[in-house]
Amino acid sequence: MSGSDSGGLMSSAGLVRYFDAEDKNTIRIDPRTIVATGVMFGLLMLVLNAMIV
Questions:
Q1: Sign (positive/negative) of CA torsion 23, 26, 19, 31?
Q2: Cα separation of 42 and 48, whole Å?
Q3: Mean pLDDT split into 10-residue runs, the chain, 53 residues
């Protein structure tokens, strides 16, 4: 068992470090902005649906 299954955690450690690193050139969006945009979009859809029916 130790021959074929060893190294699983070590091989994924590089991916964790890769995805954990933050780049200074990325676009940063506040999570509240995402939620507010979703709520506004939902309200817009409700209003448009009410106008059609």
A1: positive
A2: 10
A3: 53 62 77 97 96 87
pTM exceeds 0.85, yes or no: no
| Nearest CA among 44, 36, 42, 39 for reference residue 52 | 44
Q: Please compute, for residue 29, the number of CA atoms within 13 A of its CA located in the half-sphere on the CB side.
A: 8
φ, ψ dihedrals at 24, nearest 5° = -75, -15
Nearest CA to 49 among 41, 38, 39? 41
Q: Distance between CA atoms of 47 and 30, rounded to whole angstroms?
A: 26
Strands, DSSP E only, in 1-53?
none
